[in-house]
Prior knowledge:
mainly alpha; Arc Repressor Mutant, subunit A
Amino acid sequence: xxxxxxxxxxxxxxFAAYSADIVAYCSWRTTAASDAxxxxxxxxxxxxxxxxxxxxxxxxxxxxxxxxxxVLANQHRSRRRRIALKERLARQAAPASQEWPGATGEDxxxxxxxxxxxxxxxxxxxxxxxxxxxxxxxxxxxxxxxVTARGRLHRARRRFRTAFEMLRPDELSRxxxxxxxxxEGGA
Length: 187
């Protein structure tokens, strides 16, 4: 086992001697510079954690290349899984007139009205009504002041009411909603 001072010195020597080679190796095998940098960082993190296993002399360079190869393979697998998941979620994404599982009657109307709102309106409403946050807490969660959150919540509730009323089957509700219609993203 390497002593702490020797450990730090050994790692510094490895990094100084081979970091440029490892970064170049990773750069040729990735499409983005940030991916290459992430991979190289992961290689040296692994080297630090397993410093006792890193061979001496030029064999260390080969060990680092082998580690880089595994790190890059993990990156590629992770990217493929992420893309596959994104595609699967896109295929399953709710169309505009989705039937919500388990939702019937008024629940389905609520879900559909929420779906018709802008993402910001939907978020502020869900934080208030589903999560039970106060305007001050919503402001913190959304990165704005409590006064701004309160205003957003008021406008989102108004837009929700309009969307909900437009979905209701009775004609009186529909006429009322058309008369009070507020454009999305409006004041």
